[in-house]
Amino acid sequence: MARLRIVTDTDSDPVFGPSADSTKRKKILDAIHRALPATTVKEIARKVSRDLGETVKSGLVGVLLSYLRAHCIQEGWMCIHVKKGKPGTGDTNRFFAILVDSSGDPYFDEEHRRHFEAGSQSMLRTIRTFAENHAMELKIIVAYERSTTRRSELRDMHDDLAYVAKRCGRILKAQEDAGWNKTSADGTDGS
């Protein structure tokens, strides 16, 4: 079984590779910051491309947003996960810059909170679905595995993923019970 290798080379750029100049990453991140707020990753890519005078694809923007979330204190700002899919009514400016102070504390306003809650719930639903689906796949694959050791490993993976799915469901329920993301686009609670 292949083992995951953790790369700890601090000179290696996680986005542009080991020999990359981090100034390119910084230049694009600065352009992303200037492009915000925006409704879609595609819109961010369009604005960044126009700003820099070169094509920057949506995929690279997505990778850099992920990088940014992991390095928000170092970069001084972040852009949270947002609800997946096409934007619905009132879902404008889903992507926005959140300044992070040196202690790691972000600043949120009410619109930020609403988008954060929708993004959190979308991410948890995605994780739950992937975990449930893969747990079912593992349950089926176990029947075809001849090695007792491998069957045991697959059962453990199944149990862990089933737990992850169940835990995501519990978190979603707790969020809903707490009134997360109940605010409509006009800023009211919908009542």
Report the mean per-residue pLDDT as an integer: 81
Q: Identify low-pLDDT runs.
A: 1-11, 183-191
Taken as a percent bin, the fraction of beta residues is: under 5%
Any idea of the CATH class of the largest domain?
Mainly Alpha
The CATH architecture of the largest domain is: Orthogonal Bundle
Might you state the CATH topology name of the largest domain? Arc Repressor Mutant, subunit A
Numbering strands along the chain, what is their spatial order in the largest sheet? 1-2
Instruction: Count every beta strand, where a strand is a DSSP E run of 2 or more residues.
Output: 2
Shape: globular
Helical residue percent?
55-70%
The largest sheet is: 2 strands, antiparallel
Question: N-to-C terminal Cα separation, in Å?
Answer: 55 Å
Query: What is the N-to-C order of secondary-structure elements (H for helix, E for strand)?
Result: HHHHEEHH
